[in-house]
Specification:
The chain is of the alpha+beta class. The protein has helices at 12-19, 21-30, 34-39, 42-45, 49-71, 240-250, 256-267, 271-275, 283-296, 304-313, 317-327, 329-343; strands at 74-77, 80-83, 89-93, 102-105, 110-111, 122-123, 132-136, 145-148, 152-155, 158-161, 169-173, 182-185, 190-191, 202-203, 213-216, 225-227. The longest helix has 23 residues, at 49-71.
């Protein structure tokens, strides 16, 4: 509708009649009976293609306009039905009889997320906390969105560290920014020798396929150890044999007093210094840390015999016997046979 021309109102029929009387008569004809159509002039019965096109166009425009009006949310103000402002904008003037609601864009660091009639946009007041990263920066339609960084998940209004699965357990369900890691015990034939929030259980090595002999059968917490397996390696890293040896000692039910004795024998640590960092719930991890620090101080390769000597000094004789049976079976069996012969 051109400026200055009154806008037609009402149903489609009245709009069409206003814009094109001939097209309006056409619409009337569609609803007429056969007898009524006979009463219409022949000139109106034989409508041109242009008239039909005008008819269809007006109907489409009318329907589109009505749908557009219906899609804009409204609110009541002083007896008037007014349009709300879209997301990203706010209201600057209420609607009147002469004009609809007047809206304006939100300024920097402000937003409106929904259709509204707010006088001011909301301030982006969500600031990322410790161990969080920005997932979506503040914009005109949304507040800033934060997410826990890798290795953490959201719980109790804080980003908590993901659970680490201990040796013998692997990651069953990986952690997300909103849930912790789920651990599961390694199935038969699989193992995990590390404490990790990401590592899954691995299949035991097939020594035969490598042309080696199985020396020590694997468990849930260490791999099959192929012959020859005598713990050795560099100062910077530990071999699978060394990991298995250290894990075996750490998994024994030693108790606080004996752990302190082991710390003194390994690193000459005093009871007082160990009490400062002692955590009963993490006894295995603390024993592993002592053993790894001891390994770093050794100039020669670590051997089972060297560790057994330390364990004897700490009066952990039961652990020495178990370790010997598992890691030095051939020597242990030879000693047993020798004892049996001498007895006979």
């Amino acid at each position: 509708v051109e400026r200055g021309v009154s806008k037609p109102r009402g149903n489609p029929l009245s709009v069409i009649q206003h814009l094109n009387p001939l097209a309006g008569r056409c619409l009337i004809q569609l609803n007429c009976t056969a007898h009524q159509r006979e009463q219409l002039p022949a000139s109106e019965m034989n409508l041109s293609k242009a008239s039909l096109f005008t008819l269809v166009s007006v109907i489409v425009i009318y329907i589109s306009t009505e749908k557009c009006k219906a899609s804009v949310p409204t609110f009541q103000h002083e007896g008037l039905t007014c349009s709300r402002c879209p997301p990203g904008q706010h209201m600057t003037l209420h609607c009147t009889k002469d004009h609809d609601t007047v809206c304006a864009p939100c300024s920097a660091n402000h937003y409106t997320q929904f259709w509204n009639y707010l006088k001011k946009c909301q301030y982006c007041n969500n600031f990322c906390k410790e161990n969080q990263n920005v997932k979506h920066e503040c914009n005109a339609t949304h507040n800033r969105v934060c997410e826990c960084k890798d290795g953490y998940f959201w719980e109790y209004e804080f980003c908590m560290k993901q659970k680490a699965c201990p040796p013998g357990y692997g990651v069953k369900t990986a952690g997300t920014p909103y849930s912790s890691t789920v651990c599961g015990k390694c199935a038969q034939g699989f193992f995990s020798s590390v404490t990790s929030a990401t590592a899954q259980c691995k299949r035991h090595t097939n020594c035969t396929e490598l042309g080696l002999k199985l020396d020590i059968p694997g468990t849930a917490w260490h791999d099959n150890l192929c012959s020859p397996c005598q713990p050795h390696g560099s100062e910077e890293d530990s071999t699978e044999c060394e990991k298995a040896l250290f894990n075996f000692v750490a998994r024994q039910n030693i108790g606080q007093r004996k752990v302190f004795s082991l710390g003194k024998a390994l690193l000459n640590k005093t009871r007082k210094s160990m009490l400062q960092t002692w955590n009963e719930k993490e006894e295995q991890q603390q024993i592993m840390l002592l053993l790894l620090k001891w390994k770093m101080q050794q100039s020669a390769n670590v051997t089972a015999e060297a560790l057994m000597k330390i364990l004897r000094a700490a009066k952990l004789n039961k652990v020495v016997k178990k370790l010997s049976r598992k890691f030095l079976r051939q020597k242990f069996n030879a000693v047993q046979e020798s004892c049996a012969v001498s007895t006979n």
